[in-house]
Amino acid sequence: MTDTLFEQFGGTYTQIGDYALPDLSLPAETQTGNIGVWALRHKRYMKQHHKVLYYNLLTSGKLDSYLADIEEQAQQLFLRLVKELAEKEGVTEQLKAVDNMVWVRRMNNIRNRAAEMVNNEVIYGQL
């Protein structure tokens, strides 16, 4: 019996009952970083709207490292924006000591705006 093209390229089969199933596996990733909420949002967005890119990264074994990079970019941008907006608007530790509820309200507003900017620039805008 002649070898199939799959066997010529080093592929093997496993006999299960009457069927010979190919032994397929994804390539192992060398490095996986932190995959958090930002990366999971980007993954969901890619899976729904950019399927070709998502499946190319998945089958090449580069999806986790790509998502770890997105997570790092988004986290750094978020922290930088929160710090800059808080400084610009005068939300300081002194305000926190004087009027705690005003400080919480203003920081929540700043964090929400920063999250929206990160979503627009990194999560849903970058591809």
Outline: rod-shaped
Number of helices: 6
Main sheet attributes: strand count, strand direction, barrel closure: 2 strands, antiparallel
List the secondary-structure elements in sequence, H or E.
HEEHHHHH
Give the domain tally: 1
Strand order of the largest sheet: 1-2
The CA-CA distance between the termini, in Å, is 47 Å
| Secondary structure category | mainly alpha
Q: DSSP strand (E) fraction?
A: 5-15%
* Total E-strand runs: 2
Summarize the amount of helix as a percent range: 55-70%
What would you report as the Rg, rounded to the nearest angstrom? 23 Å
Query: Uncertain runs with pLDDT below 50, 5 residues or more?
Result: none
Mean pLDDT, to the nearest integer, reads 88
Characteristic terms for this protein:
127 residues, mainly alpha, two-stranded antiparallel sheet, 6 helices, rod-shaped
Please explain how this structure is put together.
With 127 residues, this protein is mainly alpha-helical. It has one domain (33-123). The protein is built from 6 helices and 2 strands. A two-stranded antiparallel ribbon has the order 1-2. β1 and β2 (19-22) form a beta hairpin. α2 (37-49) crosses α3. The longest helix is centred in the middle third of the chain and has 27 residues, at 63-89. It is rod-shaped. The model has no long low-confidence stretch (mean pLDDT 88).
